[in-house]
Specification:
Helix content is about 25%, strand content about 35%. It is elongated and about 160 Å long. The longest helix has about 55 residues. The protein is an alpha+beta fold and about 325 residues long. It is built from four helices and 20 strands.
């Protein structure tokens, strides 16, 4: 009899998994003293159903905190938990304010189906309320000469604690922040006493690069600041100017003297060219004329040499030789 009872107890945590329509499990973190809004989505067919928000991991043992069917006689601003349903968007939201560390735990946002064997449609939320410090952005960067701002958030229990901004490894560099803030040559610190204090570097320098700490009481968070050199736009424009300034010289204006000289040289060049052409033409004509009159004389001399050779065997006295032209029109010549 004891064994079935123990077996039932061991299976009891798993019963909601099979009987409830769980959609997802989420883990949410919030700083102590802050507020938190949780959206809970549902299917369109559940628009008219009752929605609820309760604390616990099991529906049967979940402590109800807010329901849509509850009367709203209490002032909503005085309630720590408020629930708003939007059937058009198929979502209801739960707003929790002024959270404490003891509010950490499992919560259920569900749609009540009703009936013994009809399980509710639920979603599990694990909310962790933490105390201490957080930094919105733990790594910051900016150009030389610009400004950057670090926001360090702290929980309510550190509201009255001393706030510091220190360079890592150099505790003598710590700067304190009061209600009105304090000024330094390059750093401005202000605590609004509502959950965060800000550190602003007014004019970054290359030496400001490094690790820092923002602390509240015994809590501290590291922050790294990176300063980048400013672009050398001025130097580039100056060096590029000599390359673009070099322009060709403008043409010289034409004057009367320059135009006269240019005209004379042009005419002289034309005359020389024409004279050269004429001389070449005369040389060609003279050569043709000489060639035309030179050919008959050569033929006569060649004929005379041929006939002289024909009569070379006739013995005659060349000293007393007489040239006899047989006919005026004949080209035959006899020497005897």
């Amino acid at each position: 009899m004891l064994k079935p009872f123990l077996l039932t107890l061991s299976l009891l945590p798993w019963i909601p998994v099979f009987l409830c329509g769980t959609t997802t499990e989420e883990e949410l973190s919030v700083m102590e003293g802050e507020s938190l809004t949780v959206p809970c989505h549902y299917e369109p067919q559940y628009a008219s159903y009752i929605k609820y928000w309760c604390r616990g991991k099991m529906r049967e043992f979940c402590s109800s905190l807010a329901r849509t069917d509850e009367s709203h006689s209490v002032n909503p601003s005085e309630k720590k938990v408020r629930l708003f349903d939007d059937p058009v968007q198929q979502v209801f939201t739960v707003a929790m304010s002024n959270l404490r560390e003891e509010d950490s735990g499992w919560y259920i946002c569900g749609v009540e189906i009703g009936g013994l064997w009809s399980a509710d449609v639920v979603t599990y939320k694990n909310i962790k309320v933490i105390h201490g410090m957080t930094v919105e952005n733990s790594r910051l960067s900016g150009e030389e000469g610009s400004s950057v701002t670090v926001e360090c958030q702290y929980s309510e229990r550190y509201r009255e604690s001393e706030k510091k901004w220190c360079r890592s490894g150099d505790w003598s560099s710590c700067l304190l922040a009061g209600s009105e803030g304090s000024n330094d040559s390059s750093v401005y610190i202000k605590d609004d006493r509502s959950g965060s204090f800000t550190i602003t570097f007014k004019k970054l320098q290359m030496r400001d690069t490094g690790w820092y700490w923002c602390s509240a009481g015994l809590q501290k968070m590291p922050v790294h600041v990176q300063v980048k050199p400013r672009p050398m736009t001025t130097a580039v424009s100056v060096t590029s100017q000599p390359q673009t300034v070099a322009n060709p010289l403008p043409p010289k204006p034409i004057t009367k003297e320059s135009w006269s000289g240019h005209n004379f040289s042009h005419v002289l060049g034309s005359l020389l060219v024409c004279g050269s052409v004429i001389l070449v033409g005369l040389a060609i004509v003279a050569r043709k004329w000489w060639k035309r009159h030179k050919d008959p004389v050569l033929r006569q001399l060649n004929g005379m040499n041929a006939r002289r050779n024909e009569y070379s065997d006739v013995s005659c006295d060349l000293q007393n030789a007489t040239v006899v032209f047989l006919n005026k029109d004949s080209q035959d010549v006899h020497m005897c």
